[in-house]
Amino acid sequence: MKTGWNLACAVAAFGGIIGAIGQGVAAEPPPTTAATASSSVPGTDKAEPAAIKAPPLSLYGRLPGFEMAALSPSGDRVAIIGTVSEQRHLLVIELKDNKLILNQLIGDVKVRGLHWAGESRVLLRKSDTSNLGFGFTAAKAELQSMIVIPLGGGKVFQIFQGNDMVTGGIRGFYGTSEREGQYFGYFGGMTLDGTPGSSTYLKTSAPVLYEVNLESGRATKLASRTEGERDWRSWTVGSDGKVKATIDFQSDNGRWVIRNAASQRIVEGVNPRGGIDFVGLGATPDTLIYSAEDESEDRAERWYELPLAGGEAKEVLADKRIAQTFFDRRSRTMLGYEISGDMPSYSFSDARQQKVLNATLKAFPGRSVHLQDWNDAFDRLVVMTEGPEDPQNWWTIDMKTGQANNLGISYPMNATAVGPMRMITYKAGDGTEIAAVLTLPPGRTAKALPVVILPHGGPASRDYPGFDWWAQALASRGYAVLQPNFRGSTGYSVGFQRAGHGEWGRKMQTDLSDGLAWLAREGIVDPKRACIMGASYGGYAALAGVTLQKGVYRCAVSVAGVSDVAKMANTDISESGDNQTVKRAVRAEVGAHRDLRAVSPVNFAAQADAPVLLIHGKDDVVVLYDQSSDMASALRRAGKPVEFVTLPGEDHWLSRSKTRLSMLENAVAFVEKHNPPDPAP
Predict the structure, then answer these.
(1) Phi then psi for 508, rounded to 5 degrees?
(2) Strands (E), 6-135
(3) Which of the 8 DSSP states describes residue 170?
(4) Could you give the CA distance from residue 576 to residue 571 in angstroms, rounded to a whole number?
(5) CB within 10 Å: which end of the chain, N or C, has fewer?
(6) Tens digits of per-residue pLDDT, 476-497?
(7) What does the pLDDT look like over 398-431, one tens digit per residue?
(8) pLDDT tens across 452-470, in order?
(9) How far is the C-alpha of 241 from the C-alpha of 219, rounded, in Å?
(10) CA-CA distance, 428 to 515, in Å (whole number)?
(11) How far apart are CA 535 and CA 141, in angstroms?
(12) What gap in Å lies between CA 400 and CA 676, rounded to an integer?
């Protein structure tokens, strides 16, 4: 397959929109041959590296210039979310003649998804942090909505707009369907009981399923909610717009049942921690795949396929580690899945589709290739690549022409400015093998470097050897960056993930410092020049690193981090309305209340042995703002050095460009102050 740059050049001509996305250093096309890809692997070059000029922090800290893309069903049009001058734009391009047919400024909107309904409508999913007011168990929530954007003129509207009986945006998106040339979307909606103006009340646990005409906006109730206030219900919708199956779950006892379209019970069971859900339709429209949590040590969950008409549920894909699944937009049947690993690989049931994916992977040797979207014919794809010398490039793959055309770059910089990254493994203190991503400063010798330990959030997550904007920003300033996949991380074995249960501040913490010790033994870093930083759970680990541990780090940066684990657990349970399923799940992962006080950094502020920087978004609904404000107060009372930066209007995911950049600038300045890098070569 050939690679080409004609599309990027063509669309840049339309008012400079694509060319302006990101406003970074002029980009160089990354290498695509096997020879150049292999030469970028860390540790293979013996010669002294050439000096690399560091890009400005704004290139990393602002929202990526290219965020997401979606292909129309024919594959003739592509919709793109890109950032120009810190404002998000929605662009739609006609690929056949490289014509820009829509350039819509969408401002500081927090975009969460991009979808097509036919060839003439784009659906934009966004979220907003909302104050819930009196009567809710939480003060704020992140509420999602869907905006319908016609391309040939016509009214732009929001799903459930003007419907006084549905509140709080959408609660679930179940796809689209076409009937007689009209398109319909399927959405959950929280529905008020009673009539407008009366003493209505809202059952917050379960939405109603609606079919919405995507031309008129008219919503029609398709399926009702559950009767129990603490129960929940979900659906699978077929290509004909009819409910194929319904799942009901009772939180008090964990009982669940799946019914088919005829309301017949086809399977049921008990999962006390709520680990039951639909995967989707199977390989054919008359079968269903569902997942059920397995409390044994050999599997996190098991997948079962059964006929919708009823029959035996058979376990499927038992020996596979699946990162995500892919479904046909029209038939809703399962096409294949991404295999979990350090680099993506794919398994599709259709031989031709698998051949297309194999050819695509072959075209980008040495890089991670992420499948983003495809057309109905599966002969045109959108993929994102990243890895050595690749700061996240976006491509259209056209199998008819054999071309891979570059659409744009998330972080437009010279390829040589990308810090080389690779996977390493080391032994924890108890012999457990830990995998980690090591990113090194570009153009510097990997010897006695200052280092930042950067644990991921979750903790049920993992890091990959791709372009991590936070790690790359630190590496560009001269730091080695280690991102350990400590016990409790996903993507490995079930036993490894569950080995993290009850280990906050204990083995999960020493897994990080054991990685630092390994780097020191290898001569890559100077262990006396180490800081720790992270977000969410990673922020907790940063605080624990200088309170529960001693003498390891010179500074700590906690972004939206947990300081009081007991308070976090109580908040999660209370905001669920004392839901028994949530209570069981929280206790299984983090432990009982008495144990949580012993691993809460806020209780050990007087033991802090290094300066601390706290950064927190005011609109965070995942880890509440007072987790950082409480820690700041505790450190000040103890007379410990602490700085506290509030990000106004920011959420847990650093979704806004200005505040995201503020976080990065403050974090890097703090690390440079307390753990100075070596002078640039």
Answers:
(1) -60, -30
(2) 66-71, 77-84, 87-94, 99-107, 110-117, 121-131
(3) B
(4) 8
(5) C
(6) 999 999 999 999 999 888 889 8
(7) 999 999 999 999 999 999 999 999 999 999 999 9
(8) 999 999 999 999 999 999 9
(9) 13
(10) 8
(11) 19
(12) 53
